[in-house]
Amino acid sequence: MVTISVISLLILTGLLSLGIPIAFCFSGSLLYMSIVSGVSMKGMMLWGLQQILSPALLCIPLFIYAGSLMSESGIAKYLLEFVDVFVARVRGGLGIVATITCALIGAISGSAFTGVAATGNMLIPEMVKRGYPRPFATALVTCSSILGVLIPPSTPMIIFGWVTGTSVLACFLSTVGPGLLTTAIFCAINLYCAKKFPLVIPPAITKQEKRRQIVTKGWKALPALFMPVLILGGIYGGVMTPTEAAAAAVVYSIPVGFLVYKGLTPKAFWSVSQSSGVSTGSIMIMIMCSMMLSQTYVVLQIPQLIVKAVFSLTTNKVMILILINLLLLFVGMIVNDVTGIILVAPLLMPLAQAIGLHPIQYAAIFCVNLAIGSLTPPYASLLYLGMRIGRVEFMDILPHVGLFLLGYVPVMLLTTYWPALSLTLPRMLGYM
Fold first, then answer.
1. 247 partner at 20 to 30 Å CA-CA among 238, 272, 316, 431?
2. Predicted local confidence at residue 272, as pLDDT
3. Measuring CA to CA, which residue among 23, 3, 55 is closest to residue 342?
4. Cβ neighbour number for residue 393 with a 10 Å cutoff
5. Phi and psi of 317, rounded to 5°?
């Protein structure tokens, strides 16, 4: 059975490398499993349909919609201007603005793609104008956008909680520590590199003028700043479920976009609604197909065989965690984070339990490792999007992306080997 599973994964990888739509890739691998293993697809299709109709998944299209509305409305612009007041006159301050803005956007949308799409067109040209090399500016904004996956609410964590039966709220909180650490490291890398760039520093202003700017720009940014308060406060205050918070974000962003920031027009609203619907449809089909493939592995008891195979190699927890990290990095290189979670999380869950890994730490390890997959070829969808927005070539941006990924390595290691980083906050707030 292990051989059959390996062949099915090779088929999946081969189809993905050809650029075939993800749902068809999973269907091809599933067809092979059905023919060879004898698992009935009739029952599997009914099971898959039942899974995607789960109310828990309703928050995914809602967060996608809210993120798209936010990107179009101009919320990112006012957040950027507000943060810029505090650090603009620090050498490398604009890079800090970029990193923090991407973190705030992530806290609103739960998506890395929204971060780079909403901020890239504004931040990258401004950074270039102030003396940053375009490849570095593009790399900073693109890499900082993975904070959208780490800072809650996180769409991958919703999926993880759903497929593993783990508390979604605890999963959200598990990546806050790694997310804040990543933010600090990226800001530090930016400050170090900024020493070498011929930056244009805005002229100093008086304390009175700074206070005036804080008040005026803070007032303009207030509706945007209220969005993460609404979402996170509603969820962790026990007022709303994640699905209800996602719906509230959509309802809130529409009048803000139309009446306050006026970035939304009827035409733009229709376009955003249409593109969000298409994205949701493709994602749900992908989830159904990948869930069916994953469940086929479970029916064939592949997870148990994996545990036996790993324990036949080593019983050392440190080594097993290294193997898990390497596998997740490889998975992240060939599929997106949602697909990786659906496909691999149930398979490795028995192994994680066997070595005494807490499910919430397991969730954090998954998210932190798979987040990097969007920046590492061949998948690297976030990297390619950032390159298009920043108008840079792959070989030009690669050294700078490599620098930020090197800074990300300590986050991966600490999340894996220091449980307190991911478990302290959920434990403090009573979610575990």
1. 431
2. 85
3. 23
4. 10
5. -60, -40
